[in-house]
UniProtKB/TrEMBL annotation:
Residue ranges crossing the lipid bilayer per the database entry: none
Top-level taxonomy: Bacteria, Pseudomonadati, Pseudomonadota, Gammaproteobacteria, Alteromonadales
InterPro entries: Homeodomain-like_sf, HTH_AraC, HTH_AraC-typ_CS, RmlC-like_jellyroll, RmlC_Cupin_sf
Protein name: HTH araC/xylS-type domain-containing protein
NCBIfam families, per the entry: PRK10371.1 (NF007693)
Length: 300
């Protein structure tokens, strides 16, 4: 659960991310003008504390006033081109599979996946203090605190989705972009992602995924990998592992029950995928969480 402090990009191509698609990230910094657009697979939150900023989002200029919280899918090419004020920004990077597993409303998710930038009408009085607390908790590298930060980020986004927010109507212009751009095909990707988010705890085949888009299975797989930088199978397993981790932390359910609830067809398959991903068994993961929690409690 080491969080990256910034998303690094290939110097030869600003559109190529350096393998952080499945990592969480947190960064606090002064606004910095970007030389070119870049993209990565996260859902990104930007807090603008005491500053404003202009962005290019897929070639469309938007201006975000001071004291706003925005959220967008960073797979859309984006670039900060101007800023005003002596404040600071906080960037939070959320792996897409984690964001979709939180199951916000279809409308909220659809706007983000269609390339829209959502703007909370107002920051809350505690947002700046809360992000400072998150930063300190992440620096502690204590797993229970890190998992608490993730829960609080999820709940902050949920509150935003329930309160008034604004958009820039960018999704209406997406279809006018060059068909060779990264945005091409996102309508199919959104359908695939939503289908997987709704069914990852069930058996899913490539034919199932292709049928809901009307695409040939081979093309659906290639398109998904081109945009998401991960195969459909790997992505499904990421969602299942996310679900399993939450159950291992929050419940006392048996490991077999958790494997089935998360969509793994067998306990052996669950153990194999989990250990390959985390270099420990599900039970060892649960024990480590409990031990870390006990140590944190003892210190306080």
């Amino acid at each position: 659960m080491d969080w990256v402090s910034r998303i690094k990009f290939n110097e030869n191509s600003p559109l190529e991310v350096q393998g952080h698609e499945n990592s969480w990230g947190f960064q606090r910094h002064s606004p910095k003008i970007m030389d070119s657009s870049h993209w990565h697979g996260h859902v990104e939150i930007n807090y603008l504390f005491g500053c404003s900023a202009d962005y290019l989002i897929n070639g469309q200029k938007i201006s975000v006033p001071e004291g706003k919280m925005i959220i967008f899918w960073a797979s859309i090419p984006h670039q900060m081109i101007a800023s005003e004020g002596d404040g600071e920004m906080v960037n939070i990077y959320i792996p897409l599979h984690a964001f979709l597993s939180w199951r916000f409303s279809d409308e909220f998710i659809s706007e983000i996946l269609h390339g829209e930038v959502l703007v909370a009408d107002n920051l809350h009085l505690g947002d700046q203090l809360t992000t400072s607390m998150w930063e300190n908790d992440l620096a502690s590298k204590k797993l229970p605190l890190i998992m608490q930060v993730i829960d609080e980020i999820r709940n902050r986004i949920r509150r935003m989705s329930l309160e008034p927010y604004s958009t820039f109507n960018l999704s209406n212009t997406t279809e006018l972009t060059d068909k060779k751009s990264i945005v091409s095909g996102l309508c199919h990707i959104e359908v695939i992602l939503q289908y997987i988010a709704d069914h990852y705890d069930q058996k899913i085949t490539i034919d199932d995924v292709a049928n809901i888009t009307g695409l040939h299975p081979n093309y659906a797989m290639k398109l998904f990998h081109r945009v998401m930088k991960i195969s459909i199978k790997q992505y499904i397993n990421k969602l299942r592992l996310q679900h399993a981790q939450a159950l291992l932390i929050d419940t006392n359910d048996a490991v077999l029950s958790i494997a089935l609830q998360a969509g793994f067809g067998s306990i052996s398959r669950f153990y194999d995928i989990f250990q390959r991903e985390f270099d420990k068994t599900p039970q060892q993961f649960r024990n480590d969480i409990a031990k870390a929690h006990d140590n944190t409690t003892a210190e306080t």
